[in-house]
Amino acid sequence: MPRRGALCVGTLLVLLQLAFVPSPLAGCLLNPCVEITPNTTFRCTGLNISGVPEGVPNTTQNLDLSFSNLKSLGSNYFASVPELQLLDLSRCHLHSIEDNSFMDLPRLSTLILTANSLQHLGKAAFHGLTSLKKLVLVETNRTSLSELPIGHLHTLQELNLGHNSITSLKLPEYFANMTSLRHLSFFSNKITSISRGDLDALRGGNRLNLTLVLSLNNIKSIEPGALAGIRLAELALRSTFENFSVMQESLQGLAGLQVSRLVLGEFSDAERLEGFERGLLSGLCQVQMEEFVLFCLKDFEHDTDTLFDCISNVSTIRLVDLGLEKISEVPPLSKVKHLECKKCDFEEVPAWKLSLFKELRVLRITKNRSLKDFKQKFEGLSKLEVMDFSENSLNIRTCCSPKFQNCPNLKHLNLSFNSYIRLTGDFTSVKNLLYLDLQHTTLFGPGSYPVFLSLQKLIYLDISHTKTEVKSQCTFCGLNSLQVLKMAGNSFGDNKLENNFKNLTHLHTLDISSCKLEQVDPSTFDALSELKELNISNNKLLTFDPGVYQPLQALRVLDFSRNQLTVLLESAREVLPHSLVLLDISQNLFDCSCVYLDFLKWVKEEQELLQNEELMLCHMPSYVANVSLLSFDLSSCHVSMGTVVLSMFLLSSALLLLFLIYRYYFQLYYSLVLLSGCKHSAERGETYDAFVIHSSKDQEWVIKELVEPLEGGTPPFHLCLYFRDFLPGVPVVTNIIEEGFLSSRNVIAVISTDFLESKWCSFEFDIAQSWQLVEGKAGIIMVVLEGVNKALLRQRLGLSRYLRRNTYLEWKDKEISKHIFWRQLTGVLLEGKNWHQEEVKLM
Ligand SMILES: *[C@@H]1O[C@H](CO)[C@@H](O)[C@H](O)[C@H]1NC(C)=O
Ligand SMILES: *[C@@H]1O[C@H](CO)[C@@H](O)[C@H](O)[C@H]1NC(C)=O
Ligand SMILES: *[C@@H]1O[C@H](CO)[C@@H](O)[C@H](O)[C@H]1NC(C)=O
Ligand SMILES: *[C@@H]1O[C@H](CO)[C@@H](O)[C@H](O)[C@H]1NC(C)=O
Ligand SMILES: *[C@@H]1O[C@H](CO)[C@@H](O)[C@H](O)[C@H]1NC(C)=O
Ligand SMILES: *[C@@H]1O[C@H](CO)[C@@H](O)[C@H](O)[C@H]1NC(C)=O
Ligand SMILES: *[C@@H]1O[C@H](CO)[C@@H](O)[C@H](O)[C@H]1NC(C)=O
Ligand SMILES: *[C@@H]1O[C@H](CO)[C@@H](O)[C@H](O)[C@H]1NC(C)=O
Ligand SMILES: *[C@@H]1O[C@H](CO)[C@@H](O)[C@H](O)[C@H]1NC(C)=O
Ligand SMILES: *[C@@H]1O[C@H](CO)[C@@H](O)[C@H](O)[C@H]1NC(C)=O
Ligand SMILES: *[C@@H]1O[C@H](CO)[C@@H](O)[C@H](O)[C@H]1NC(C)=O
Ligand SMILES: *[C@@H]1O[C@H](CO)[C@@H](O)[C@H](O)[C@H]1NC(C)=O
């Protein structure tokens, strides 16, 4: 018994495990690695392992082992995954990497060792990495470059040594051989100075394109000449200096540097510079550069008094978050071509001063919500092409010609995301505009007047969300070259599109989404034969009228989502051009009735064309509301169509049947009874003169008063009596029909009180009645005994009593009445009697 119990518990445990451990989880426990892309990319993070996990196949190219507990790497550690291209070993608690650990990875191009406090790094630790391009040694407790065994990695393009404790920028000689190096980062280290000779390894003639990041160090001095003759793509020195005087001093040390982009300033969350110095950037006079970027100097004083002194020959200047309140000084004959002032503290657009930058081609003043006024004019910026004043709070009373005098080359004007602009329609001084962006700025003018008449060359116009109501049909008149018109989030008079785009024959993109549209006039798109993209989503359109969209024969993208379309009819689907590659009709109010079966089928067939199919839901009928059109069961339609036909058929049959029953009640009733009876009735001869139906309680009377006198009299009549003549073992109904009615010429119904009360007798009498009607047989002889309730009798016998062929006899127990009764009865029975030979002889 105890053994049995133990067995039971064991089995139970196994069963419980099978039942409660979900199979995916069980799979996880077996293979701790996640296959991101089949056979090539695996993620096995957070493991307590040594070695490459079992489940990783030798075809793997990308392997993420981060957050695992690897501790140390030994030689040929990755022999099982020779195809590796990317290996991530971030935070693997690695403290040592032995020689030849990566020996088997000739294809590895990216090695990430972030956040491992490496104490031991073998001299040959990185041997074998003949294709390595990117080595990330961020946060690896490195203190110097000299002990870093990477000299043989000639293919290296990016070396990231951020967040270490490196104190000296002295580059070992092997950097001279790293001719592919593009990016060298010492972000957040402990470098305090740059001395002559430190960067000698970079002096090789063919190095042009290195970005050197020294941000977030604490540089106290740069020895003059330390960077002389060095060419860099970018030098980043953000939050590198302790105070302004150190910064100013150090910048002097940059003399002789040639750099494409120089980035100075601070990080907004690491600002520490104080005590602004005039001529802060004076050191930059000796630096050759193309682009200068200055970030986040909160204490930047004296505006631009000395700012441009040494950078006026730079072609691109970006000033970001500087707290500049105005442009105070501008150098004469500056060569600045591209000037950007982002998040500056201007209150008014400093147009006069900026107009002194005669070489200016691009001017951007963006992202300051306090910048409201635009009163001054830009003048004579003959080379200016791009003007971007987006994301301020500008309020412009008369736009645009008066603001830009003699700026004939202005092609892009971006005034988007501002407060208010009144367009007067005067663009004469900027009539070469190609791009005009006014989105999300309240506009006055468009919609009511043809304000764009003189912009004949404009190809791009964005007036989305500008509170414009298009009332005039000539709103877009003059824009004969326009290719892109974006005007989402506005409205049209009467919420109706009418002939608004008549001369825009070159338009290829039109966005009229979210415009409250309810109706589109048939001729609206007639001119748009080149239109490629139409976005009319998020309106209130009920129909997709083929006539309206028929002219759009070049259409590639049509977004008709979020309207109130119930169906895309065959006629509409037919006008969709062959060029269409994307159609979005999601989030409409689709009617999934089976009437539209062809549409529902079409949706399933056109999944490649249709976008956001998962958002195509049935709206009607209510029993399929919110069912996706894709998962809608088309076969349910076939079934219910069948059901409809079937039920129609059944209903009409039932109606027909009822009618027939009503019409041929007796015939049917009789046939029914016949059917349950004998099939050979027709073949039988008539053997009885009368079939007597009576109540069993009247049997005695029947024998005495009917059977004896009639069968024993002259001529003798032959009666059919159920208690005597019915065949035993045959169902009663069959007997009644076959032996009774079909074998008898007459029916004698002995009607007593008992007869009237007996259901069985009533049934027999009813059959007799119908039989009489249908077959036209001789009558029913009704013998009414004494004491029968006459009212009940009249009701039961009904009309039968008055039919000519029927005989109605009343029995009275008196001799004289009996005599008359006998004469009448024999008279009726004699009619049509077939005399047998013997009977004739007897007579
Ligand atoms: C992955 O590898 C297995 C076995 O090596 C192979 O059968 C399968 O086709 C491969 N799958 C892909 C997507 O390469
Ligand atoms: C990791 O595995 C080792 C044995 O291989 C064990 O001693 C250690 O406790 C494990 N660490 C954790 C966190 O599971
Ligand atoms: C990878 O492993 C399979 C067996 O699992 C072997 O046949 C194949 O040669 C191996 N490929 C390489 C490159 O090692
Ligand atoms: C960094 O390495 C030094 C030895 O070179 C060691 O004393 C120190 O603890 C390490 N730092 C960390 C955070 O592991
Ligand atoms: C640079 O490469 C050349 C040839 O490959 C080699 O002779 C020289 O020793 C290398 N220099 C350094 C510092 O590794
Ligand atoms: C320098 O690198 C940038 C990208 O970092 C690239 O666009 C540019 O063409 C490169 N210039 C040269 C001269 O290699
Ligand atoms: C700037 O920092 C240096 C070095 O720490 C210090 O000697 C000097 O006094 C500081 N100057 C100012 C103005 O704070
Ligand atoms: C700018 O260039 C002009 C001549 O091209 C030169 O005279 C002037 O000194 C330069 N200015 C600066 C700040 O380098
Ligand atoms: C814009 O300028 C105002 C002062 O004119 C200043 O208070 C604000 O910080 C500036 N920056 C932004 C992003 O609005
Ligand atoms: C105008 O500026 C906004 C905001 O910076 C930008 O999203 C939009 O693309 C610009 N428009 C053009 C035409 O460049
Ligand atoms: C329509 O464009 C044609 C030429 O493209 C031009 O001649 C005609 O004046 C324009 N009509 C309107 C109303 O702008
Ligand atoms: C149409 O415009 C709506 C916004 O009104 C946008 O969400 C949707 O992505 C646009 N459709 C296409 C195809 O660009």
UniProtKB/TrEMBL annotation:
Q: Which GO terms describe its molecular function?
A: lipopolysaccharide binding; lipopolysaccharide immune receptor activity; transmembrane signaling receptor activity
> Which Gene Ontology CC terms are recorded?
early endosome; lipopolysaccharide receptor complex; plasma membrane; ruffle
Keywords of the record: Cell membrane, Cell projection, Endosome, Glycoprotein, Immunity, Inflammatory response, Innate immunity, Leucine-rich repeat, Membrane, Receptor, Repeat, Signal, Transmembrane, Transmembrane helix, Ubl conjugation
Bilayer-crossing residues are 639-662
Stretch forming the signal peptide = 1-27
**Has UniProt tagged this entry with the keyword Ubl conjugation?**
yes
Please report the name of this protein according to its UniProt entry.
Toll-like receptor 4
Species of origin reads: Malurus cyaneus samueli
Ranked from the top, the taxonomy reads: Eukaryota, Metazoa, Chordata, Craniata, Vertebrata
